[in-house]
Amino acid sequence: MNELRQNMVTKRWVIIATERAKRPSELTPLSTTDPTALPAYDADCPFCPGNEELDLERLRLPKARNWQVRVVDNLYPALQPDGESVYTFDGIYRSSSAIGYHDIVVESPLHNAISALRPAAELVEVFTAFQQRSRAIAQDVRMEHVVCFKNHGSMAGSSMHHPHAQIIGLPIVPTDIRARLEEVRRYYENTGACGLCTMLDREREDGKRIIIEGEHATAFIPYAAFSPFHIWIVPHRHQAHFRYADPESCAGVATVLHGILRKLYKGVGNPDFNYVVRTSPVKEAHPEYVHWYVTVVPRVTRLAGFELGADMFINPTLPEESAAFLRSIDST
Ligand SMILES: [Zn+2]
Ligand SMILES: [Zn+2]
User: Fold this and answer.
1) pTM to 2 decimal places
2) All domains of the chain, ordered by start, with CATH?
3) DSSP category for residue 220
4) How far is the CA of 115 from the centre of ligand 1 (A)?
5) For the segment 152-190, what is each residue's pLDDT rounded down to a tens digit?
């Protein structure tokens, strides 16, 4: 029998279609990019060492000539920091100037690097860059929300081979973020507890959807995961803002993410994926009800009309089976 499941934190429903269930090992990536087939250096790539445009640079780690991670302005930004934040009302319509930040995080000096095949410390450095830039962007009083994310592969929206992630600073809080905030606030009011802390406790007790349990963070497939291998990585310590997370939690989440990317690479065949750091909006003080975490979404199923029309997903896999499959993949 198929089943409708609801995520207790987001309140979103999903159809778990076990009647047409696929075994996790039968899922094949929609597209695979094999960066290891690329050269380690490309003379035409603006992110390769030697081609750096220093006037675009916002941050480099370490601050030496031989950098590991660089943050630069996107040459084709969705939003730009210059100018004033102006709201315009035109009859029933309203608009706002596209003020904001659009950073590119160059994750490695190597053109063909892939996180899953590099040391975990390199992904920790990327998260350090995310955090430092999030703090800097949040100091701009016009900014309401900061999103750190990565697109890996063309199905996930990536258009350049050199490994990079992105950071976007927004002058608004997106509607979906507001809705999620409202749900966790309501849960806190009703129970006096953080929804994500509660869910994490339950998952760690139960264990069947856990993939990696680290010292500072745990990765699991949510009970109502909306796609196969949709994974949450939750820091054990309750903190609302990613930008203020302590170094152990930040590094702990990045290290578990590294393990997950290795498992996906080996077990699912280097699928295209997105990961996103979900955090509190900038101007929420320190809400007890918000808990930052990371979502990983491998691209193994396509979105179709139903997903668009119902804003709801059909997951052809059982979260418990997918978690067991990924647990069994050696990530060392
Ligand atoms: Zn390059
Ligand atoms: Zn919490």
Assistant:
1) 0.95
2) 3-328 (3.30.428.10)
3) E
4) 15
5) 988 777 778 899 999 999 999 999 999 999 999 999 999
